[in-house]
Amino acid sequence: MKDSFNILICGVGGQGSILARKIACAAFIRDGYDIKASEVHGMAQRGGSVVTHFRAGTQLFSPLVEEGQADYILGFEPLEALRYLPYLKNGGNIILNTHQVLPMPVLTGESEYPHDIRGRIETAGGIVKEVEALQLALEAGSPKVMNVVLLGVLAQFLPLPKEIWLEAVDQSVPPAYRELNRRAFVAGYSLK
């Protein structure tokens, strides 16, 4: 068992970062890890920034990931992943959803959406895995499961068995949505 994993999940309100954290917590607890987690909500109802700090290890005391210490950033939205890039440790991994949620200043024409986000992240020392999560979620059955697709991609990098993750999905979602979320997780987990 690795001593600890520091993970940041970042996106905008309504993208499902809270459910992704809930599933991850359930999976790591099932595998015997100590976990700590904390969310910071912006103006989530208006598409504001939402970031979840998630840590798993043998013995942890703080839920917060310090700047420069994240092993992984799970970027539900590219601009949000770029915003939280200072948290990534050198050589850390970013799972980067390609689906953009345009912020209000971009929608009103006051600002432009940044270009070449992947290049900026790689220049800063991050290892990027881009994911077309919307397409995979649609193939699984609903655009609402992009979060679980992305969690499945992240799970490829972590030492927990697939079956533990699927049990955590079952534990974390209502029975009517379990099969859909299982398909979404497997779609992400199977992505090469």
What would your notes on this structure say?
38% of the residues lie in helices and 24% in strands. Strand 4, helix 2 and strand 5 (88-97) form a beta-alpha-beta unit. With 192 residues, it is an alpha/beta fold. The protein starts with a strand and ends with a helix. The mean pLDDT is 92. It is built from 8 helices and 6 strands. The longest helix is centred in the N-terminal third of the chain and has 14 residues, at 17-30. It has one domain (4-189): Pyruvate-ferredoxin Oxidoreductase, domain 3 (3-Layer(aba) Sandwich). A 6-stranded mixed sheet has the order 2-3-1-4-5-6, sandwiched between helices.
Could you write a compact summary of the structure shown?
It is built from 8 helices and 6 strands; from the N terminus they run E-H-E-E-E-H-E-H-H-E-H-H-H-H. With 192 residues, the chain is of the alpha/beta class. It has a single domain, classed as 3-Layer(aba) Sandwich (Pyruvate-ferredoxin Oxidoreductase, domain 3).
Number of helices: 8
Order of helices and strands: EHEEEHEHHEHHHH
Predict the CATH topology: Pyruvate-ferredoxin Oxidoreductase, domain 3
Beta strands, count: 6
State the helicity in percent bands. Answer: 25-40%
Question: Which properties best describe this structure?
Answer:
192 residues, Pyruvate-ferredoxin Oxidoreductase, domain 3, 6-stranded mixed β-sheet, 8 helices
SSE inventory with pairings:
Blueprint: E1 4-12, H1 17-30, E2 34-41, E3 49-57, E4 70-75, H2 78-83, E5 88-97, H3 104-107, H4 117-123, E6 127-131, H5 133-140, H6 146-155, H7 162-172, H8 178-189
Parallel strand pairs: 1-4, 4-5, 5-6
Antiparallel strand pairs: 1-3, 2-3
Helix pairs in contact: 1-7, 5-6, 5-8, 6-8, 7-8
